[in-house]
TrEMBL record:
This is DNA-binding transcriptional regulator, XRE-family HTH domain. Gene3D superfamilies: lambda repressor-like DNA-binding domains, Umud Fragment, subunit A. One of its GO terms (molecular function) is DNA binding. It comes from Solitalea koreensis. The keyword Ligase does not apply. SUPFAM superfamilies: lambda repressor-like DNA-binding domains, LexA/Signal peptidase. It comes from the Bacteria. Residues 8-62 form the HTH cro/C1-type domain.
């Protein structure tokens, strides 16, 4: 039996639904549910989303993990551990290491940002992310995030920002840039104004002034990574030649300086 068929049947029985009742909730025919559970067909993306929402799990979990009583117990235990750790001012972080026990730098591609919000604390999910090493970054835990959009120009969309993990949010320094993972915003890269001591918020500011500054509650923040380096295939444009107006201004300033020197000599 395939993963999808097994998971659908298990989840349906877990909340004591008949095939007809599940079909009614998903707005499909009962025979369709039967076909899915017997592995004769697979639901399309739109229906997968409805199924995941109905059972309060992610689509990735539904199509790739074998869901069972043990699976739910493990998930609930992980949630309790995270809740307890955050309440004590600590945060749980999943990492991976190479064969020499050196920490990897995991890469979160832009297309995987939504999945990272669900799997950031899951060691198995983190283990499946692409990995690399940067020899000039040592003495910390680092992760790389691919940017999307133009809110932090001159860093362009597609630039990879490498951040160092910040376990204590009070250590965030106003005016510096961070990758922030939060419940509502997902992954964003912003310049931060730390207001945690004043009102338990962080002000997030874009370097592109076309975007407005906004605040998020510190309790909604899941991870913070301080920007340490970036990787880009876009090279900076050369500095342009001075304009005629600028040259004229420079000549006038030079003339004033010469006149002033002559006056001092007389």
């Amino acid at each position: 039996m395939g993963i999808i068929s097994q998971n659908l049947k298990y989840l349906r029985k877990r909340i004591s639904l008949t095939q007809q009742q599940l079909a009614d909730q998903l707005e499909v025919k009962r025979a369709v549910i039967g076909a899915y559970e017997e592995d004769r067909a697979e639901p399309k993306t739109e229906l997968l989303i409805k199924i995941a929402n109905l059972f309060s799990i992610s689509v990735d979990e539904f199509i790739s993990e074998r869901i069972s009583d043990k699976w739910f117990l493990k998930k609930e235990k992980l949630a309790e551990e995270q809740k307890s750790a955050i309440g004590n001012g600590m945060r749980v972080l999943s990492i991976t290491v190479d064969q020499n026990n050196n920490e990897n730098v995991e890469l979160v591609p832009a297309k995987a940002s939504a999945g990272y919000l669900n799997g950031y604390a899951d060691p198995q999910y983190v283990a499946e992310l692409p990995k690399f090493h940067l020899p000039f970054l040592r003495g910390g835990t680092f992760r790389a995030f691919e940017l999307k959009g133009d809110s932090m120009l001159p860093l362009e969309s597609g630039t990879i920002v490498v951040g160092e993990y910040i376990p204590n949010f009070n250590d965030v320094k106003t005016g510096e840039t961070y990758v922030i993972l939060s419940k509502d915003e997902g992954i964003v890269y912003k310049r931060v104004i730390n207001k945690i001591k004043e009102n338990k918020t962080l002000r997030l500011q874009s370097d592109n002034k076309s975007y407005e500054t906004y605040s998020i509650n510190a309790e909604d923040v899941l991870e913070i990574w301080k920007a340490k380096a970036y990787i880009s295939t876009a090279f900076p444009s050369p500095v342009g030649e001075p304009s005629l107006e600028k040259l004229t201004e420079m000549v006038e300033q030079l003339q004033k300086s010469v006149t002033k020197l002559k006056s001092n000599d007389e």
